[in-house]
Amino acid sequence: MARVIFMQGSSPTHCSKVETNKAQQWLAWLKAGCEGYALGREQQPHSLTLEGSVLKDGLRGSRPGPQTSPLSLVLSDIIRHFNSSVLRSMCFPGKSLVPLDDDKDLWIQARELVRSMKENLELSFQNDWKLINVFFSNASQCHLCSSNQQVNHRLGSPGLVNAGAGSQGNVNLTCLISTFSKDRKQNSTWAFLVSYLSQVTSGDSQCAGSLTNSHVKYSMDKLTRTLDYLHQEFSLSSRSTCSPPAEPCRCSMETSKLSRVVMQWSYQKTWEELLASSKYSEQESFTVVFQPLFSETALLPLLGEPPLQDLIGLALNLWNSMMEPAGQKDEPFSAKERRPMKCPTQENPYLFTYRNSNYLPSSSKTQKMPEVREGTEVNCPDKDPSDSIPTSVHRLRPADIKVIGAMGDSLTAGNGAGSKPWNLLDVLTEYRGLSWSVGGDQNISAVTTLANILREFNPSLTGFSVGTGKESSAGAFLNQAVAGDRAEHLSTQARKLVDLMKNDSRINFQEDWKIITLFIGCNDLCGFCDDPVRYSPQNFTGNIGKALDILHAEVPRAFVNLVLVLEIIGLRELFQEEKVSCPRLILRSLCPCVLKFDDNSTELASLIEMNKKYQEGTYQLVESGRYDTREDFTVVVQPFFEKVDIPKTLEGLPDSSFFAPDCFHFSSKSHARAASALWHNMLEPVGQKTTEHNFENNIHITCPDQVWPFLSTYKNVQGHGSWLLCRDRAPSASPPTSVHALRPADIQVVAALGDSLTAGNGIGSKPEDLPDVATQYRGLSYSSGGDGSLKNVTTLPNIFREFNGNLTGYAVGTGSANDTNAFLNQAVPGAKAEELVHQVQTLVQRMKTDQRVNFHEDWKVITVLIGGSDLCDYCADSNLYSAANFFDHLRNALDILHREVPRALVNLVDFMSPSVIRQVFLGNPDKCPVQQASVLCNCVLSPRENSQELARLEVVAQAYQNSMRELVESGRYDTREDFSVVLQPFFYNIRLPVLEDGRPDTSFFAPDCIHPNQKFHSQLSRALWVNMLQPLGRKTNTLDLAAAIPLSCPTQNDPFLRTYQNSNYTYPAKPAIENWGSDFLCMDWSPSNSVPTSVHKLQPADIKVVAALGDSLTTALGAQPSNSSDLLTRWRGLSWSIGGDGVLEIHSTLPNILKKFNPHILGFSTGTQEETMGLNAAVDGARARDMPAQAWDLVERMKRSPEMNLEKDWKLITLFIGVNDLCHYCENPEAHSAEEYVRHLQQTLDILYEELPRAFINVVEVMELAVLHQGQNGKCAMPLAAQSNCTCLRRSQEDSPEMQKLKQVNWNFQSGVSKFSYWHQYMQREDFAVVVQPFFQNTLVPLNDRGDADLTFFAEDCFHFSERGHAEMAIALWNNMLEPVGHKTTSNNFTHSRTKLKCPSPEHPYFYTLRNSQLLPDQAEEPSNVLSWAVPVAAGLGLVVGVGVVMVWKAMRGPYRKGPPMSLTTASF
């Protein structure tokens, strides 16, 4: 190991007068790392961080003199950690700390070093190994100037060169000596050269490589005298000289950041290669190694008096560099950065030299890359221009283009596009002739660029760039992109571009059509973190707008491609993949804001957000219509860069062949694919453009559509049209006999059934024309309309007509189902499921009798959408519109089609969710006729938020959808080879666009805010088409109205409309439910750090005891089937609030949940015997009057329990009572009044309050008993024993006065109990709280998939709950406990799921009480207000609109069954 350290260099290592104890503070991290290493012995390395305890054997002995450097101290102490006999450090300064006139000072330091070591009695000069560090700054920019910028001159004195960033001096040196360990086994010396290359600036240069090499030799010559002297003294080798100094120079203009970082990297590499091949690497006893210690900006804070921590950081960084093989060292970094200390390894225990690193210079690594041909062919049948020069940009063909230009940055300038893989310096070369958007080198067969593509259509095209050079070179022509430019520079580029076009004789400025491509933004994003204001999204789009304004104002006949800024975050993948060879110093220097932050950092998240805002702002700028005010000018956003995936190799690694040698710029491979992607975007319709180009795909040039051969603009996709880019539109070779081999072109007939949505009500209505919603625009209907063509009207028939021009069956124009032009669209406004059978019969009859339809031979697509109108009237007659009836009606209609219609594929489409209708209608009271809600769709629009009616409606809607799914998945309609029903689920979830003010966007709806307009129908058509081509099991079930939905194409491998069979899909079997347990997904199970003294800080794991009061619903009577037909068993171990049988995964109970937090909880019941009832004090038949006695019983049990600590243990007690009071209310109304009920419960709570410390009391509101019983619809006959226990239910008939009275009393019970959470008398103690849990407040009858009452929730007596019911009650109670007071769920969601349990949040890990809910008593209860959307409107306007709406809907609905007036006037889908 080295015995001596010597340091020479400039100001970073000057001899600081720092006391030893300060240095010790910064060495505190040393002890923990690299333990076990000693001289001649290696062990496994240890991880070492920058914090830790002080090294025991560090910095011992007397205090160093004033010539001690912290940099040396740290490096010495690191090596002393391997050899404790290391000597103290000394410093021998040079002549000056200011720039010198010559390089003699370095040589003087070397002589002083040799002399001091020879005279040092503790050192064996001949035998000890020595480590010598030479720091030097070399900042001449001579090697960086381009050849036409260099100005020959002489320095004022030898050795002095100009330094960047205010620094001067080639050798500005001080010295430092540290003597280390003793090792007299060899007579040799080991010297390390540590070089700092500071502030290297550059300019573009084609001769940069040779200049860099000569400058390094020039700098090395200035060090030669010193190195040769050391070499001679230490190894007795002969002295040699380096090449003569290069002629110094200075640059005449400022250089770019790209040039600076590339040249710095190249300068560093040149140093390494020269040293590796020099005489200093030939000896066994002497070598020189280059250590790239600092980053480009690291020196700036160190040029003055450097802080101690900076020098220590540099020492640590230097050590880490010595631990890395030559040629594989980490990128330089700031002195202030802290990185883990690296240790020798068993495989590599040595300090690295060029020889033991197996260092190979770049030239030897260079592989001869095969010549890659990036050309393609343009095989388009029609390459002709327009018959006459077009006057409108919206009728512009590719061959009409005569001039091409471009603006942007280095990605458009073509930096590195033609560079060889290892020629990093060549990245400074701008290969403009290869530029994707404007390059014109060779032709399309050799080089794929937009210009070369357009030259295939117009060989006379001009403006393209050729060869290499800057924007001012002759070959650049109209490629005015400038390397390093940002959006703020675009207006300057635009000005130059316009002037060039005006003044060039080859261009007819007024008459020639021009393509100009603008691409900018990467440099803005790369610098965003350094100046967020300068590079804000507003400034970015504003600067683009300034450039476009110049073009718009001055350039006639122009089509401008505004290419979206790319998703730059993908650059991190290339940067972070260690297996890919990239110059990471350059990458990080070029784009620090993308690469220098951690993956989960807020800075990176902010950058990603800004990237999106750049893109969004670009869209908004153009879509504002600002540049569509002239017929001969437009700007179109081309978004193929919006989402970028880094291309991968076959091994799954980022493919660097798509990048220039700096791994930042594009290679010719990427330029070619970007050109292809841009061309594709230019032909794709607005709104359906590709936003994620796959760069891995081979280059393919799409041809303009022969019917619509124009470049796409925002105006030339007429109306609501779409583009279909499918190549293969042929039918099957012969008419298929199987529905599972059906291609789109095989379809010959389309038909539709449904309600007003399919009939087309209001599709074409103007925004303010509410009465026109009665018009049925059948020709625009998503599933059956045939107006226009796909170019201007997107419907399913118009898509099919692109495959088969002879399609029939579609509707055109307007009118009713009986009109001739409706043809096979037999949908009727307001129709419900029960009317679907009649529609089917009419449709079948029409198909059989119409001569345009070959009923037995033609393949048919029939689309069915029904259910919305049923939901609108559900509350008027819940039995009539039950899910079971919906199922029956739908089945009957499909049965007819299945039985009578040959060769048919039936699309069954989900209806629109009621919640969507409510969001739009109620969220826009100023635009929607909210005062007519009860007329338009009463049961959907009228219920209040969070009401029982609305909750019930959502349950029924879900049951409708389950019915549709169950019917299809039964396989009932897959018994014939030529018939199938496929559920198309795209309508299942709808994402509504939201305006800036947070309100839903009504621009997708007709004036009634309920029916979809043409914009909406167009999206429905696209989504349905996409669904039909998606295999079952992978169909999209979400419709994002604002999203661009491109029309999919059948593929060669999957050319068929998808069915269950050709999707290889098996309908899922309903899994058998083995138990009613729950999965526990909470992560934090720990209790409070100390036992809490406040109930408002009570966490689940703090609960030690559980208990319960109540009746047979708490004793769990009948929870499991009984062996006896007369007697039910009390399954206390399964009781929802107190049962503890088994584990949560098998039995969902409150104690089993709590056992996940505290396995040692006490008090729960098990089994069925009284001996194991625990603290379950509930008694069968108990009423509220019995609760005080149960409370005293519970208190006495707790006091007698030897296992619990009454004073210290936290207790959770659940009280649930009231069912028996309701059951017997009619016998003695006064004794069972709400007042008496509340009084008894208050007495009970008073006992608990007075007797029990540390208690949390759950009071569960009594259920709605009549609702629960009546909801069974008579499907469960209550045994006589149960009836005798609930006489009031037995005596009362539905809707009788007695039943209404019982419901009122039930509500009074709930209302009285709900106040207990706010009673002041229970808030006086810090360790006691009463919280009302209201999940039974709005009781919903559990329904099965058919919509019937699900009796599996009930016991055999149809009165008590089964184990499943108890499990759902436990889950509901637990979730209520984790919801704040005032915001608790007030209805039961009895649907099976093992993952419904909520978890305490990190922000609020406590059970909620009134206080920790931050809800004051006077705020807790808010009266039920009128609907929030029912804002006052002018009386006159309301009357006019109301009358109009009623008339419209009466006209739309047609015949209707009699019933309650309010609900029977409803009409929706």
Description:
By secondary structure, the protein is an alpha/beta fold. Helix content is 30%, strand content 7%. The protein is built from 39 helices and 19 strands. It has a 5-stranded mixed sheet with strand order 2-4-1-3-5, with helices on both faces. Helix 5 (257-276) packs antiparallel against helix 14 (584-590). 52% of the residues are buried.
Helix content range of the residues, please? 25-40%
The average pLDDT score comes to 79
Low-confidence stretches: 10-33, 35-67, 92-102, 138-208, 236-254, 294-305, 1278-1283, 1417-1469
Strand order of the largest sheet: 2-4-1-3-5
Structural class: alpha/beta
Work out the strand percent: 5-15%
Oligomeric state of shown chains: single chain
Q: Round the Cα radius of gyration to an integer and report it.
A: 42 Å
Shape: flat
Number of helices: 39
Main β-sheet: number of strands, strand sense, barrel status? 5 strands, mixed
What is the tally of beta strands? 19
End-to-end Cα distance, whole Å, is 88 Å
